[in-house]
Amino acid sequence: MRNHIGNVRYRTENNKHFLADVEKTAPPHQAAKACQTCTVSSSRVLRIGLLGFGTVGSGVYRMLADNRESIEKKVGFAVEVVKIGVRDGSKPRELPSDLFTTDLGSIVDDPTIDVIIEVIGGTDPAGALVERAIQNQKNVVTANKELMAKEGSRLVHMAKARRLDLHYEAAVGGGIPLVQPLKHQLAGNAVLKMMGILNGTTNYILTEMQDKGADFGDVLASAQALGYAEADPTNDVDGFDTMYKISILASIAFGKQVPLESIHREGIRAVTRTDMHYSDLLGYRIKLLGIVDAVAPDRIRARVHPTLLPKAHPLANVHGVYNALWLNGDFVGDLMFSGRGAGSDPTASAVIGDLIDVGRNLAAGGPGSALPYDIGAKTESIDTLQTRNYLRLIVQDRPRVLGTIALEFGEHGVSLAEMEMKTLPEGRGEMVFLTHPATESDFRAALTAVENMPNVERVANSFRVES
Ligand code: NAP
Ligand code: HSE
Q1: CA–centroid distance, residue 327 to ligand 1 (Å)
Q2: 452 CA to centre of ligand 2 in angstroms
Q3: Domain 2-174+345-364 shares a fold with domain 180-341
Q4: Sequence-ordered list of residues with C-beta below 8 angstroms from that of 273, at least 6 positions apart, any chain
Q5: CA of residue 214 relative to chain centroid, distance
């Protein structure tokens, strides 16, 4: 019988878990009795320990149940979730209670489990559990960007040394395949540049601000009320989430783990509807981007900040909660991936793809694609970045003000390219400039000097511009 309860669908037979007929004490990959409900005729069973049953974990379970036949055909043998680890044992779960435990250590120590799917999040206790699972000779699939960005290289080396799989496609871009293409299909290229919209919450907020002419605070509040943004939005709006994700992508593309401390990070709190308005007038959209530039064959610069992009750029047309990665490789040229970067179903899609890989590799008798990255990527500070800039100033509306500001920029080697100007009440004015490319350090020095000019009330905002 097939039930559909709330968000979680599963099958029951006399109140038993639908794969409960598989002998629990069977050695890994070998069921003592063939699974009655499995769709492939094999005595082998891929036994899964699922750590976490929230947005992603419940999606993974549902996808396994819904697409069981095709998944098992692709893996080559039966697939069974034997235990699910959660924090709160008293939460109603809509699945048989004996499937759940709050003792997650017992799952990673269970010798009959072949693969651990970690969808808890954060580094504690997820990091220690993943490590223990690998020590216990288990393959791991994780969606945990923070863990992979901080500990990826070490964990991958651990897994590789034990000839195990450690997959993390869902950690970046939700349902969009990014990790595997970078590891495999694009591996022959020198990646020259990557730019990604890697956080759905911030892209949703920026899109709403653009479309509705609304302020950041108002859109954030309504996104929280609708459940699109977390109660504590720090990870998303301050750019941490994007930083973790671009660090993982850069580490794969450039072969060495990129330290988070080397990534310049700014979030979107400073973006206003006024900046959206002027950007629009000048032909741009504002997006929070994770950007990696190859500055030399062995050196990269990674950064996260709100960025003006020309309206014609493919990334400028990625709206709402959608994510995208644009990259330029020396042989492949320009490429863009886009899709749903978060949510239960798209993220489950990436996790299950990894799980199928694990199953196939087990069937073939060896690990698949351990990530080829080591520690110690050489990185370049943002100070040497050459880029165009957007700048908005509030000034006293008097003779010579515009001229002296332009002169001050000139003194610092910064050339102005375009401008918009507006008269404000009480004898003030608003000036918006786009500069020609300038080094970051020159532009910052010019900004400080301009900010200290007597007729300049304040630098209202500045953002980098990409093309
Ligand atoms: P979530 O909805 O908050 O679910 C977390 C699950 O982990 C819950 O079942 C929770 O147990 C369990 N858990 C949390 N802390 C625990 C602890 N200390 N001990 C035992 N269990 C614990 O999180 P999520 O959105 O599914 O995200 C999971 C992972 O996927 C994260 O790494 C996240 O970054 C990543 N990811 C999420 C998305 C997305 O769209 N949500 C997309 C891509 C990647 P209870 O059920 O008892 O609370
Ligand atoms: N908080 C993330 C986002 C979820 O908004 O994109 C997936 O990583």
Answers
A1: 30
A2: 39
A3: no
A4: 209, 213, 214, 215, 216
A5: 26
Which residues does the annotation mark as catalytic? 245
**Taking the domains of the chain in order of start, what are their residue ranges?**
2-174+345-364, 180-341, 382-465
Atom number of ligand 2 nearest to Cα 230: 1
pLDDT band at 363 (very low <50, low <70, confident <90, very high): confident
CATH architecture entry for 180-341 = 2-Layer Sandwich (3.30)
Counting ligand 1 atoms within 8 A of each CB, the residue from 88, 178, 347, 351 with the most, and so the one to mutate, is 347
Q: Tell how many helices (H) and how many strands (E) occur in the chain.
A: 14, 21
Q: What contacts 446, CB < 8 A, 6 or more positions away?
A: 408, 409, 411, 412, 414, 438
Burial label for 103, CB within 10 Å (0-12, 13-18, 19+), is: exposed
Q: Name the amino acid, one letter, at 347.
A: T
**257 neighbors 246 (Cβ within 8 angstroms):** no
CATH classification of 382-465 is 3.30.70.260, yes or no? yes
* pTM higher than the cut 0.90: yes
Tens digits of residue pLDDT in 6-34: 223 233 232 222 222 222 323 334 443 44
Ligand 2 atom at shortest distance from the alpha carbon of 201: 5
Say which amino acid occupies 458.
R
pLDDT band at 250 (very low <50, low <70, confident <90, very high): very high
pLDDT tens digits along 182-232: 999 999 999 999 999 999 999 999 999 999 999 999 999 998 998 878 899
Instruction: Name the one residue in this structure whose structure tokens are 């970078």.
Output: 182
Token pair listed for 111: 């010798």
Top CATH class, 2-174+345-364: alpha beta
101 lines ligand 1 (CB under 6 A): no
Percent of the chain with pLDDT over 70: 90
Closest C-alpha to 143, from 66, 248, 41? 248
Task: Count Cβ neighbours within 10 Å for each residue of 30-44 and write b for 16 or more, e otherwise.
Answer: ebeebbeebebebbb
pLDDT exceeds 90 at position 373: no
Q: How far apart are CA 208 and CA 219, in angstroms?
A: 7
Strand, helix or coil for residue 340: strand
